[in-house]
Amino acid sequence: MDSTKSSGETAINITESKSSKGKAPATNYTVTTKATPYQQQGGWKRGISIFDFILRICALVAALAATTTMGTTDQTLPFFTQFFQFQASYDDLPAFTFFVVANAIASSYLVLSLPFSIVCIVRPHAVGAKLLLLIFDTVLVGFTTAAAAAAAAIVYLAHNGNSNTNWFAICQQFDDFCQRVSGAVVASFIAAVIFIFLVVLSAVALRRH
Amino acid sequence: MDSTKSSGETAINITESKSSKGKAPATNYTVTTKATPYQQQGGWKRGISIFDFILRICALVAALAATTTMGTTDQTLPFFTQFFQFQASYDDLPAFTFFVVANAIASSYLVLSLPFSIVCIVRPHAVGAKLLLLIFDTVLVGFTTAAAAAAAAIVYLAHNGNSNTNWFAICQQFDDFCQRVSGAVVASFIAAVIFIFLVVLSAVALRRH
């Protein structure tokens, strides 16, 4: 493949050198074909960067919603028995605490990444900023998905319980708590999906510099 | 081979600039500077592709280990009481079932991706195959992390229990089961981290085509 490509290029160069007796029209042709897509690329790369910026704001909204919903959920039951606690909060379960911390980190990262996204809009050919965003976005895909999945596993258990391990469902008592927590999990999964789209967008924008 | 090729091209360009008699020498300069790094890029891109292939095999080993460890774990206790089951298997808990399915899918994807990785080694400038691998790798980052995190949340609960929700630790009884499951979770997290490295590698290779 290398040999065919390079031989093709050499052939072009030979015809170029033959035809370039005085005017070099082939050379000008090569330059024009190279220059025009570069300017066109600037157009669609800027479009991708603007879309990237909008997606980042959507992800920020989703991550902030997940953090605040989970963090402020605190249900106190009007009665209490000796078997069930009369208060449920996110810090009762380690998975929910991790969820709040991870989504808060994701929100902070998204705020910090907005200036870099603006740099990509202003300078569509900036490779460094895009590569940096892509690497951190990929790490954040794993981070937000881990938080959402761990919380989802616990929420599932809270809803349905598990007879094999004698873990009882607690959502009959804490229905409001469970509903809010489920909403937070969904918001975090939305943020994770947006992060996947951000990685793919950055990769497409990086493809031809 | 590379050096002779590039020297041949430079010679052609020199004759070209001589024959064009001072008309647009800057254009000829652009052609020469473009030709040589293109071949150098082929070298380090092939190196990245080979590293990509090795990482894929490592991820495959980790994902297969996670699947088989979790899938074959089946502990039967020599005694039974009326409170605890006397058999523990992965399909007792939905999170563990999801873990096995997700890691099996990840293993299958990794086997299917190996030919594409070989294509990237043979043809270092193939953009389509790299972009395809990057997109699917990103999705798989989310997938394996979700499986590992959900299983980790349940394993944590099985080890420590939770007094707030009256979920008791079961690892005193099923210690062998818990140890094997923990090992499977670690293997799945290793696979997820390798997937993140694969995405970053693909992005670096895509950077300049």
From TrEMBL, chains A, B:
InterPro entries in the record: CASP/CASPL, CASP_dom, CASPL
Compartments where found: Cell membrane
Membrane topology summary: Multi-pass membrane protein
Biased composition (Polar residues): 1-17
Domain Casparian strip membrane protein: 46-193
Chain spans, region Disordered: 1-26
Domain of life: Eukaryota
Principal location: membrane
Keyword terms of this UniProt record: Cell membrane, Membrane, Transmembrane, Transmembrane helix
The UniProt record lists the keyword DNA repair: no
TM ranges: 53-73, 93-119, 131-158, 184-206
Pfam family, one: CASP_dom
Cellular component, GO annotation: plasma membrane
Family per record: Belongs to the Casparian strip membrane proteins (CASP) family.
Subunit structure: Homodimer and heterodimers.
Protein name as catalogued: CASP-like protein
Native source species: Forsythia ovata
